[in-house]
Design goal:
Blueprint: H1 3-17, H2 19-35, H3 39-46, H4 50-57, H5 66-75
Helix pairs in contact: 3-4
Length: 86
């Protein structure tokens, strides 16, 4: 199984239960709060809309892509690292 398929499976598991998405949203919100970054500023940094950032920050919205996570991390000056575990 190639890495892309493994990552897609991992994301489905994370977003299906909602726990992974909640954790991601929580981490991004906390970093934004720590750095005093507004949703508007985050959207500018990610080159997207405020509604897209709000969806990312909504722990109940299970729609998320690696691209979005990566852009959010970059906008916060962070790297996104995905670890595949058994």
């Amino acid at each position: 199984m190639n890495e892309i398929v493994k990552i897609r499976i991992l994301l489905k598991v994370l977003t299906k239960s909602g726990n992974g998405k909640r954790k991601i949203a929580f981490q991004i919100k906390n970093q934004m709060r720590k750095d005093q970054i507004t949703v508007t500023e985050m959207a500018k940094r990610m080159n997207t809309s405020r509604s897209s950032v709000n969806r990312l920050l909504d722990p109940e919205n299970k729609s998320i892509t690696l691209d979005t996570i990566g852009r959010a991390a970059k906008a916060l000056g962070k790297k996104c690292r995905i670890i595949l575990e058994k």
